[in-house]
Design brief:
Blueprint (H helix, E strand, L loop, with lengths): L9 E6 L2 E7 H7 L15 E4 L1 E3 L11 H8 L4 H6 L4 H10 L2 H17 L2 E7 L6 H16 L4 E9 L10 H18 L5 E6 L6 H13 L3 E6 L7 H7 L4 E4 L5 H10 L2 E4 L1 H7 L7 H7 L3 E3 L13 H10 L5 H7 L2 H6 L17 E4 L6 H4 L6 E6 L2 E5 L2 E2 L12
Parallel strand pairs: 4-5, 5-6, 6-7, 7-8, 8-9, 9-10, 10-11
Antiparallel strand pairs: 1-2, 3-12, 12-13, 13-14, 14-15
């Protein structure tokens, strides 16, 4: 993660949406012939990086929770707000009341912000519907927004985000609904690639999580887990035992959980923004995980309650200052390791010939400025699949026809 393969004064060429060359200027002049009309982007005195890959987001929601944020500033805890009917359930009420069109537009607006900040691929979860029709509404909105946007959006079913109010007295019935009805309906419609569960004492127990994830796996979904965020609940160990692709948050992960993840090849999703906003005083032990051989990735966790940001650049800064990553490790965690967490590292995540031409140009003299000079957007140009979609910090794609402005 510390070896970025930097090419000083380098050149990159793309054709047909794929990278066909990366190397020095001298190698470029020797090996690459330009077609008539080739678009040339000048990145002199700037830094070119792979498009950021955000492997954990909750983009499909309506409403806001700024009042709860203010209450947390006043000393209220996440658990206290949840007990009062706030937290996730507050967003559930707003999302259930919103139309499909409103949710789709909200997702598109957030994708636009992400793209301007250099994110070219992201994961997006449901989880604010918590009923068959509302979970499907969210996933269909994710598909519609992602289908007409330059950014690639990979959908995750998170019907087990929390227990909805109507099932508080019968948790078993809700687990049965998620495993026995929601998952079959979602997969029949082809709306998700992954199944996720919030495994936590205040959400779903280990056995409830196992039941839901096994149902997801039986229906062809790959597995992700919200694990060990608020306590050492054993979520990481469970994720490893089930062959999950990722376990995310991990603020309270045990040494046993780290060893299990390393042995099973489970990627670790670092979400420093959530710990920062919750002021929990805990961070996932990134150094322990890296030293154990766990592939770690950074993600925004963009959601209305505990990490309302679309910026991977801000997340990288938090990953360094709070989780102890180096600037090099943060960049790897925001690109190639994020791609690995989504099973697309053969396609994107690094500036490698044969991969998709997804990249961002940052107006900085050195990559460390991404995390060092924080609180602003350094991205000036974004290229997605070989097409310019952000130029001079402005979106330049056409709705439904990404990147037609520039080739």
């Amino acid at each position: 993660m510390r070896d970025l393969g930097i090419i000083e004064g380098g050149c990159l060429a793309a054709r047909g949406g794929r990278i066909v060359f990366t190397g020095t200027r001298r190698e470029f002049e020797r090996e690459v012939a330009l077609d008539e009309g080739t678009a040339i982007l000048d990145a002199s005195d700037r830094v070119v990086v792979p498009g950021f890959v955000d492997g954990h987001t909750h983009l499909a929601f309506a409403g806001a929770r700024h009042e709860e944020f203010a209450q947390r500033l006043g000393g209220a805890t996440y658990e206290e707000l949840t007990a009062r009917g706030g937290g996730i359930l507050s967003t559930v009420r707003a999302t259930r009341a919103a139309s499909f069109e409103e949710i789709e537009e909200n997702i598109r607006a957030r994708l636009d912000t992400m793209l301007r900040h250099g994110t070219t691929t992201c994961e997006a979860k449901s989880g604010y519907g918590l009923s068959p029709e509302d979970e499907i509404k969210q996933l269909q909105a994710i598909a519609a927004a992602g289908g007409s946007h330059p950014a690639d959006v990979i959908p995750t079913f998170l019907g087990a985000h929390t227990v909805p109010p109507e099932f508080i007295e019968d948790r078993a019935a809700y687990v049965k609904l998620v495993a026995g009805r929601m998952i079959p309906e979602v997969t029949a419609l082809g709306l998700a690639r992954y199944c996720d569960v919030f495994c936590e004492r205040s959400a779903f127990s280990l056995e409830e999580t196992r039941t839901i994830l096994e149902a997801g796996r039986a229906h062809g979904l790959e597995l992700r887990v919200h694990a060990d965020q608020l306590s050492d609940s054993g979520g990481a160990i469970l994720a490893a035992s089930l062959g999950a692709v990722t376990a995310d948050h991990l603020d309270f992960v045990s040494d046993e959980g780290i060893r299990a993840m390393a042995a099973a090849g489970v990627s670790a999703g670092l979400i420093p923004g959530a710990s920062f906003c919750l002021r929990s005083g805990r961070q996932a032990p990134a150094r322990k995980m890296i030293d154990a051989g766990v592939a770690v990735f950074l993600a925004t966790d963009c959601n209305p309650g505990t990490s309302f940001t679309e910026s991977m650049q801000a997340t990288m800064t938090l990953g360094c200052l709070l989780a102890g990553l180096s600037a090099e490790e943060a960049l790897a965690a925001a690109t190639i390791n994020g791609a690995r967490s989504l099973g697309i590292d053969a396609e994107t995540g690094s500036l490698t010939p044969g991969k998709r031409a997804d990249l961002a140009v940052l107006d900085i003299p050195h990559y460390a400025h991404i995390v060092y000079h924080y609180g602003l957007n350094h991205v000036v140009i974004v290229v997605k699949d070989g097409r310019v979609v952000v130029e001079d910090r402005v979106l330049v794609y056409e709705d439904g026809s990404p990147g037609e402005v520039r080739s």
